[in-house]
Every structure is written in structure tokens, then in C-alpha cells.
């Protein structure tokens, strides 16, 4: 049951003030509302209110300028910050400035009432002191979708802790970017950020890479070498692709997490571990546990705060912002800034993006580098997306030509595709997307095999020649003329 209290509301939007007044009053709270930051501050300075709900942008003062004064005058007063500027940096600034909670607009009233109840039931603790304004100039994460708002709020809560975080998500969703944000805006930002990719290191060298080794510990160890744990002392150690860590190294990592110390390979003196661990994986670790490939006890040690990054297809509304962001990054490297037509953006929103944000960034770089026109048409987008599909390597199991049937290859690919959603369902419209993806390479292969002879290709495919011509035109298949 929510604790009833006196709520001070500040928002320039009269409709929002009315909605909040009605909802909070019905919940049994006493509400005073204003559109002025000056009035809000006068109430607070006079000792009024048990909780504050305020918008960031006010006519007379920004809430981020007001928050430090509130924290100094009444550090126990919880402040809930609302904003339509739904960016990662807004959430971080709210947390750093001492806000109890950050809510992006539009917000859910039930969620707001739950937050108010929690804030009134337990005293608000002042957060770490606000950092300098210049530290917020760069935005490490881009996107205003609902999926990203959840990520921003979770990150804001984690900044002032040393809790171990497990970041899940498909390849290319930005797991290392999130890990770096946790470090650069967290308590350990003055320390080093050290990343290690488990999939990129030979299995017999992982323990040495992590914990270091002494001279003579093994053949070729000609001198003492520091490991990543020692290099990350006082900072953050990012363990990427943790699902690829061999069992032997998992056992040693578990011991470090349990005991807070480690020994180098060949060493005897324990070394205290003073690092924050952030791990990441694009695999389902629970499946690996069932297969005996990952330790369950290590999973629970690492999975203290699970954070799943959404695939790009789950936040397609962020594509315009991301495209502008990558064009601007390219401009710093001498590439031309372009704009994408409205129909081109819609086509991009409907594309499944198997490579996620990394694939989108690569596309934007190609568009900036290869095309002279200022506006990129939907036809160019179509051609580039198809080229990307054709260039993408097949990740199936290695099979001989006799073993690898088309049906089996598609089945394996679909199994991995469904597994990438970690138990959830992919976006609707899968049937037509699969048919479209298969049709283009099929017609291209037939045209290539017949050296561009449409009559032979139509016969090979079992299609009417006019139908084939129509497909070539619709799909944008690049054909080569038959030799004379």
C-alpha cells in the first residue's frame, strides 16, 4: 500500500498537471501544482512537500539547475524527474543530479504511482555529487524508443554501484558501448576500462590473459606478464563473449568472484581483485548450462543485474536518429553528410537487420562514401540492403555438399534466428520476409548460371519469361548479358 504524502508537481503543460493532480489525489495524496520552477523552489525552501515531481524544461529554470539546490537544502526530499527529451544522457543527468527516479514522457500512470509509493515509503538517499557540464557533451547511446528508455533507466541506477552486470543481446546491438558507458559515467571512471573477448583468445591462453603469469610458468613464459585483472585495477573489466570461456577458466573466475582475489599462473601469492565485472554474451547461457558448457554457479555470480539489449528490429523507430548520428560521425572523418528519403527510411524500418546497429552503421558509411547525391533514394537503399544480404556469411555448421541440403540450411538458420530472441517471438510478417530473402539469391544464381540468358533462366526456374523479367525488375537483380 502506497504511503500517502504531500506531492509538489511542477510542469509547464497544464494537461499533465491536471492528469497528475487527478491520479495522485485519487491515490490519497495531497497535491500542489505549478508551472514555475521559482514557485516550486519557494515551496521546497519553506519545508513543504514530501516528494517532488518535476519536468526538466521549465519556463524560468531547468530542473537540472534546481536539483543541486534541493539536494543541499533538503537532501531527504525525493525528486522524480520527467522529460520528453528521452535520451541516455537525460537519464544519466537525472541520476547524477540526485533524482530519485527518471520517467520519460509519455509515462505510465500506474508506474508513476508505484514509484511515488516506494519513494514515500523509504527515505531518499542523496546520490553522488553532480559532475561538470562538459562531461555530458557526448552521447554514448542513441535512441528514444520505449525499449531504449528501459535501458537508460536501468543504466542510470547502475552508475553509482559496483554491482556485476550481465549484458545480453545479439551481435551488433552495442554491448561494449553499454559496458563503456557504465564505466565512463560510473564511480570507477577514473580507473582503466579493460576489455577482453573470450572468443578471440586461444583456450590454453585465456587463464594467462586474465590473471597473468610468472616467468617460467609454462614453455615460452620468458618473463612475468600482467593479466587483465591486474591491468583493470581500480576500474572495470569487460568480459565479452563470456559464453565462449572454457570450463577451466570459468572455475578460476568463479573463485575470484567468490574470494575477491586471484593468483597468477605459476604464482603463489594471492592478489586482491579490485575491479568491477561487466560480462556480455550473444548466447543463451541457460542453454549452455543445460548442455554442460557453462557453470551454473558462475552464471548466478555474473547475472547479478541482467540487462538485455534490444535488437534493432525491435526498436525500428530509432533508425532515423541512428542514421543521422552515424552520418555525423562520418563527417568528422571527412565523409559527406547525406539525408535519406522518407520512403528509404520506411524501407530501412522494415528490414530485419541481422547485424543490428553495427550493420546499420556500415550501411551509413557506404552511403556517405559511395553516392554523390545529397538525398539517398529508396532504390539505393533497396540495392544496398540486398547486397548486404548477399555478402553476409552463412554461419551454419560445416557440412559437405552432399550433407548440406537447402532445407537443412534454412532449418538451421531459422533455429538460430528464433534462438536469438531469447525465448521471445520475432516480429510478425516472418513468412513474407523469408520468401523475399530466398527469392533474390535464387533468381540471381539462375541468372549467373545462365550468364544472363533470361530464356534459359526462366526455363531453369520453371517460370514464364515475362514473370522472370518482372521479378528481376522488382527485386533489382543485376544481370549480365549473355555472350554473343
TrEMBL record:
<dbReference type="InterPro" id="IPR003593">
    <property type="entry name" value="AAA+_ATPase"/>
</dbReference>
<feature type="domain" description="Response regulatory">
    <location>
        <begin position="6"/>
        <end position="120"/>
    </location>
</feature>
<feature type="domain" description="Sigma-54 factor interaction">
    <location>
        <begin position="141"/>
        <end position="369"/>
    </location>
</feature>
<keyword id="KW-0804">Transcription</keyword>
<keyword id="KW-0547">Nucleotide-binding</keyword>
<dbReference type="GO" id="GO:0000156">
    <property type="term" value="F:phosphorelay response regulator activity"/>
</dbReference>
<dbReference type="Pfam" id="PF02954">
    <property type="entry name" value="HTH_8"/>
</dbReference>
<feature type="modified residue" description="4-aspartylphosphate">
    <location>
        <position position="55"/>
    </location>
</feature>
<dbReference type="InterPro" id="IPR010114">
    <property type="entry name" value="Transcript_reg_NtrC"/>
</dbReference>
<dbReference type="GO" id="GO:0006355">
    <property type="term" value="P:regulation of DNA-templated transcription"/>
</dbReference>
<dbReference type="InterPro" id="IPR058031">
    <property type="entry name" value="AAA_lid_NorR"/>
</dbReference>
<dbReference type="InterPro" id="IPR011006">
    <property type="entry name" value="CheY-like_superfamily"/>
</dbReference>
<dbReference type="InterPro" id="IPR025943">
    <property type="entry name" value="Sigma_54_int_dom_ATP-bd_2"/>
</dbReference>
<keyword id="KW-0535">Nitrogen fixation</keyword>
<dbReference type="InterPro" id="IPR027417">
    <property type="entry name" value="P-loop_NTPase"/>
</dbReference>
<keyword id="KW-0902">Two-component regulatory system</keyword>
<protein>
    <recommendedName>
        <fullName>DNA-binding transcriptional regulator NtrC</fullName>
    </recommendedName>
</protein>
<dbReference type="Pfam" id="PF25601">
    <property type="entry name" value="AAA_lid_14"/>
</dbReference>
<dbReference type="InterPro" id="IPR002197">
    <property type="entry name" value="HTH_Fis"/>
</dbReference>
<keyword id="KW-0067">ATP-binding</keyword>
<dbReference type="Pfam" id="PF00158">
    <property type="entry name" value="Sigma54_activat"/>
</dbReference>
<keyword id="KW-0678">Repressor</keyword>
<dbReference type="InterPro" id="IPR025944">
    <property type="entry name" value="Sigma_54_int_dom_CS"/>
</dbReference>
<keyword id="KW-0963">Cytoplasm</keyword>
<dbReference type="InterPro" id="IPR001789">
    <property type="entry name" value="Sig_transdc_resp-reg_receiver"/>
</dbReference>
<dbReference type="InterPro" id="IPR025662">
    <property type="entry name" value="Sigma_54_int_dom_ATP-bd_1"/>
</dbReference>
<dbReference type="InterPro" id="IPR002078">
    <property type="entry name" value="Sigma_54_int"/>
</dbReference>
<dbReference type="InterPro" id="IPR009057">
    <property type="entry name" value="Homeodomain-like_sf"/>
</dbReference>
<dbReference type="GO" id="GO:0005524">
    <property type="term" value="F:ATP binding"/>
</dbReference>
<comment type="function">
    <text>Member of the two-component regulatory system NtrB/NtrC, which controls expression of the nitrogen-regulated (ntr) genes in response to nitrogen limitation. Phosphorylated NtrC binds directly to DNA and stimulates the formation of open promoter-sigma54-RNA polymerase complexes.</text>
</comment>
<dbReference type="GO" id="GO:0043565">
    <property type="term" value="F:sequence-specific DNA binding"/>
</dbReference>
<dbReference type="GO" id="GO:0006808">
    <property type="term" value="P:regulation of nitrogen utilization"/>
</dbReference>
<keyword id="KW-0597">Phosphoprotein</keyword>
<keyword id="KW-0010">Activator</keyword>
<dbReference type="GO" id="GO:0005737">
    <property type="term" value="C:cytoplasm"/>
</dbReference>
<dbReference type="Pfam" id="PF00072">
    <property type="entry name" value="Response_reg"/>
</dbReference>
<keyword id="KW-0805">Transcription regulation</keyword>
<keyword id="KW-0238">DNA-binding</keyword>
Amino acid at each position: 500500500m502506497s504511503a500517502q504524502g504531500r506531492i509538489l508537481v511542477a510542469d509547464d503543460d497544464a494537461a499533465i498537471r491536471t492528469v497528475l493532480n487527478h491520479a495522485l489525489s485519487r491515490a490519497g495524496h495531497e497535491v500542489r501544482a505549478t508551472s514555475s520552477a521559482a514557485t516550486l523552489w519557494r515551496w521546497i525552501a519553506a519545508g513543504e512537500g514530501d516528494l517532488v515531481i518535476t519536468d526538466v524544461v521549465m519556463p524560468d529554470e531547468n530542473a537540472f539547475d534546481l536539483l543541486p539546490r534541493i539536494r543541499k537544502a533538503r537532501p531527504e526530499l525525493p525528486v522524480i524527474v520527467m522529460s520528453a527529451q528521452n535520451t541516455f544522457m537525460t537519464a544519466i543527468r537525472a541520476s547524477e543530479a540526485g533524482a530519485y527516479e527518471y520517467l520519460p514522457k509519455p509515462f505510465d500512470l500506474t508506474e508513476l504511482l508505484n514509484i511515488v509509493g516506494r519513494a514515500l515509503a523509504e527515505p531518499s538517499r542523496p546520490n553522488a555529487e553532480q559532475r561538470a557540464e562538459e562531461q555530458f557533451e557526448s552521447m554514448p547511446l542513441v535512441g528514444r524508443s520505449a525499449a531504449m528508455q528501459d535501458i537508460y533507466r536501468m543504466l542510470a541506477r547502475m552508475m553509482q554501484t559496483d554491482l556485476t552486470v550481465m549484458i545480453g543481446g545479439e551481435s551488433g546491438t552495442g554491448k561494449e558501448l553499454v559496458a563503456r558507458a557504465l564505466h565512463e559515467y560510473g564511480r570507477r571512471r577514473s580507473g582503466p576500462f579493460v576489455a577482453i573477448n573470450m572468443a578471440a583468445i586461444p583456450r590454453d591462453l585465456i587463464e594467462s590473459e586474465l590473471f597473468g603469469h610468472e616467468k617460467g610458468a609454462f614453455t615460452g613464459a620468458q618473463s612475468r606478464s600482467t593479466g587483465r585483472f591486474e591491468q583493470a585495477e581500480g576500474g572495470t573489466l569487460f568480459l565479452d563473449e563470456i559464453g565462449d570461456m572454457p570450463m577451466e577458466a570459468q572455475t578460476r573466475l568463479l573463485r575470484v568472484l567468490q574470494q575477491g582475489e586471484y593468483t597468477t599462473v605459476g604464482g603463489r601469492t594471492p592478489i586482491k581483485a579490485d575491479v568491477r565485472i561487466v560480462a556480455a554474451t550473444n548466447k543463451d547461457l541457460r542453454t549452455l548450462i543445460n548442455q554442460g558448457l557453462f557453470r551454473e554457479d558462475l552464471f548466478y555470480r555474473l547475472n547479478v543485474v541482467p540487462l538485455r539489449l534490444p535488437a534493432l528490429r525491435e526498436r525500428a523507430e530509432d533508425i532515423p536518429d541512428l542514421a543521422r548520428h552515424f552520418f555525423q560521425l562520418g563527417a568528422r572523418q571527412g565523409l559527406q553528410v547525406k539525408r535519406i528519403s522518407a520512403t528509404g527510411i520506411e524501407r530501412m524500418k522494415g528490414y530485419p537487420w541481422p547485424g543490428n546497429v553495427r550493420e546499420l552503421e556500415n550501411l551509413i558509411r557506404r552511403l556517405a562514401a559511395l553516392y554523390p547525391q545529397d538525398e539517398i533514394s529508396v532504390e539505393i537503399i533497396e540495392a544496398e540492403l540486398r547486397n548486404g544480404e548477399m555478402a553476409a556469411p552463412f554461419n551454419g555448421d560445416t557440412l559437405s555438399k552432399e550433407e548440406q541440403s537447402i532445407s537443412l540450411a534454412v532449418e538451421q538458420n531459422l533455429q538460430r534466428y528464433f534462438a536469438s530472441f531469447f525465448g521471445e517471438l520475432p516480429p510478425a510478417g516472418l513468412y513474407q520476409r523469408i520468401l523475399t530473402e530466398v527469392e533474390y539469391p535464387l533468381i540471381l544464381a539462375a541468372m549467373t548460371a545462365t550468364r544472363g540468358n533470361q530464356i534459359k533462366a526462366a526455363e531453369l526456374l520453371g517460370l514464364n519469361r515475362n514473370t522472370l523479367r518482372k521479378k528481376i525488375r522488382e527485386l533489382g537483380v543485376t544481370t549480365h548479358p549473355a555472350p554473343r
